[in-house]
Amino acid sequence: MEKLEFQFMGFSIEKISIIYGTFLIIFGISISLLSNSDSFTSYIPTIFGIPIFILGYLSRSFPKKKMAFMHIIVLIGVIIFFGGMDFLRSYPNFFENFWADFSKFILLFSGLIFTVVNIKSFIFIRKNR
After folding, report:
1. Is the CB of residue 111 less than 8 Å from the CB of residue 80?
2. pLDDT at 55
3. Number of domains in the chain
């Protein structure tokens, strides 16, 4: 019997987690460098990207622990989404502090997509048990 696996844009959810974690790490460092920020908070995307990357890698390396790792990953994704909602606090002066608001917007948007994809993965797995 063929084992079904959730795919999004041709990637497994573990691979998506590794890609998203890598994106957040690079994004956080890039924003900090581009904005010449000396604030620790400009590295928040990097701080969240590191555990997503590590847990995504571990979920591929240890399939028996995949469920636990992926649940932690989706929890981090939800935190990223809710943290990105701070962008809405800037209303009506969106992007007055361009780099901070841009970073929050990316966290809001990417955190939402990442969380939805993870939830769809969980639903797929539950339906195919």
Report:
1. yes
2. 97
3. 1
